[in-house]
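Q: Hi! Curious about what KICSTOR complex protein kaptin-like looks like structurally. Here's the sequence.
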Amino acid sequence: MFSLKEIFFQPLKCQPNINTLHIYRNPITGNQEIFLIGLDGLGVIVEYLQKTNECKAYSVSLQDFQADCRILSVEILPTTKYNTSPALIYGYAKTTGISNSDDGTSFCFDRVQIVDNTIKSSVQNRSLTFAPKFLKTIITKNLTTTDNEVILVVAGGEKLAFFSEKNERVLQDITKIIDLYLPELSHTSGDVCAMDIVTISDLETNQLKQRLIACGHSNGLLNLYITDVQSDGTVKTVHKTREFDSFISSVKFFYHNQKPLDGEQPHLLVTSSLEPALIYRNVTLNIFADPVVLSGTETQDCITSSCVCDIDLDGKNEILLGTFGKYCFICRVPIDNRKTDAVEGLTFVGETFPVCRALSLAASAYGILAFDLTNDGLHEIVIATTKGLHIYQLELDEVVKLIENRLEKKKLEQN
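A: Let's find out. The predicted structure is below.
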């Protein structure tokens, strides 16, 4: 039996916005920690304490965050030569009084450092001419120097801007020279609300062979860029588009196998606010020619968030979808056109296809992640809802029985 139990809940005073749930690696402990911020600039950092076998929450506040402001988006800059600790970038709108809208009188984004589970070293805010509703960090090479650099994408309205780290306190606007880093995005419109990137490298030389970027837009447009890097360093990009009927809430590249096989091709997951989730299979080869609809995923209001992980320990990835209708759908990936026998793993109860489990939530989901928080080899599911932060874990008794069965089967095969 496949069961999940809630092992931790941390309420927030004010609900989060979409794209404000993140994880980062603590440079001192080496462990991954959870960060979630509310619309009011008050949030929480959660870490797992191995000695006491419990999750601990630390309240955080954006120090210079002013009254009558509304958090629109959050992103984490990784530890680099400019960062001794992870840096937090947050975009916000200045409003006139309490507001339920992302509109405001002016817009800014700030950068602060996360040190010892607190927020420090605030820098002067940068004014923007548009609402920074979407932030995304991309690590890519400068085509002239071949050095890896962290690029921050800032999008909102019809605007799109790019920044790179100049030093520990300054982000430099590189929008006019983005061709040196990500030429595919030089003509992308600014109403981006979802983005993902995957790179494919040569197994022998580790040189970049191919880069895929998917951009979802608030008007329902989906952009797909497939860039091939030639042996002489020149690039060739194929650009394809699709139109959806509604706001695109997430895009995710993923592989069917939890540990991708040699030569395995990535798939592309696309979710939107009105339609069921959709997978474009083997997207590098087929582009949009082989779509599969995840039937039933549109039944609980709009899909707000998604992630991919092997939740049932069968070596194959599942898709997790958070919805505004207070459900998390867990879906098997329909790589074949027919339902196949389940690979040995935890058994789903009342399984249909492709939705194999619907996890009831306490409130609407605004973000979802899956990773090994407790360092036990199993993924926990982390969900941000309008009420706060929830962490779910597999029933460990079921996992123990599964491992025992596999060991017994292996023993019999050896005999």
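A: A fun detail: Helices lie at 283-286, 396-414.
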